[in-house]
Amino acid sequence: MNLPVPVMSLNAEQKITLVNHEALSLFDNYGKIQLGKRLYEYFPDYITGRISVALHTHTCRKIKKCSLNEILYNIDYIPLPNKSQKGGILVFRQL
Fold it and tell me: Which of 37, 75, 86, 88 lies at a CB distance of 3.0 to 4.6 Å from 63, suitable for a disulfide?
């Protein structure tokens, strides 16, 4: 997926199901992101907790000023449009 910003998708269990090329560079210190791994394996609790709430309530969530690899990002969680299909996407916007 060739997009100008980092994007990843999650399923209902917070497993990473898709990662674009830009998102791979977010976690150089932790090794490459692997599909099927859970979000908490890469993100701190304050991020995964907010995303967990958004997943269960099927709502959008904005997480501001998150430091990843010493760079600040705003992270948007956007649920999938079909409520019967739990999961969503994360979009990272560098500050």
Answer: 75
